[in-house]
Design goal:
There is one protein chain. The longest helix has 14 residues. Strands 2-3-1-4-5 form a 5-stranded mixed beta sheet. Helix 4 links the parallel strand 4 and strand 5. The C terminus is likely disordered. It has one domain: Alpha-Beta Plaits (2-Layer Sandwich), CATH 3.30.70. It contains 4 helices and 5 strands, in the order βαββααβαβ. It is globular. Helix 2 runs parallel beside helix 4. The protein is of the alpha+beta class.
């Protein structure tokens, strides 16, 4: 499983936020740039944004949830600043859960994680992946 924080906004000045932030933005993109590298005439992005790796390739659900709760607690002030930063329209945590084949699987999100994310106005997105976690 993996967990990534994402921030997006049509008028978000990604560079202005990240240059003063302790968060290390990855996958930074800007509005009106090509959606696909190497295709200058193709479709362009309608918003700017970035992502931050919170937890990568954690096999144990409980360990991943603990990492996410620690990230939210350790970065609470900066996440509040991000949520109120001019141009930010959405902040979310995306948890990628690999599908284990046919049948039912259950992922439990502890109340502390949900409470912390909710208190910071951060949405929770769960993506079910047919491959390994983090492989899109």
């Amino acid at each position: 499983m993996t967990c990534t924080l994402r921030a997006i906004g049509r008028d978000l000045d990604v560079d202005a936020f990240l240059e003063t932030s302790c968060l290390r933005g990855e996958g930074v993109y800007r509005r009106d740039t090509p959606r696909l590298d190497g295709e200058p005439g193709g479709p362009v992005r309608s918003a700017s944004g970035f992502s931050v790796s919170v937890a990568v390739d954690v096999d144990d659900d409980e360990a991943l949830m603990q990492e996410v709760v620690m990230f939210l607690g350790d970065n609470e002030a900066e996440l509040r600043r991000l949520g109120s930063f001019e141009g930010v329209e959405e902040v979310c945590l995306e948890v990628v859960v690999p599908c284990q084949g046919p049948g039912m699987s259950v992922t439990v999100f502890p109340a502390d994680l949900l409470w912390r994310a909710g208190a910071l106005d951060i949405d929770l997105v769960v993506t079910h992946s047919a491959g390994r976690a983090g492989v899109h």
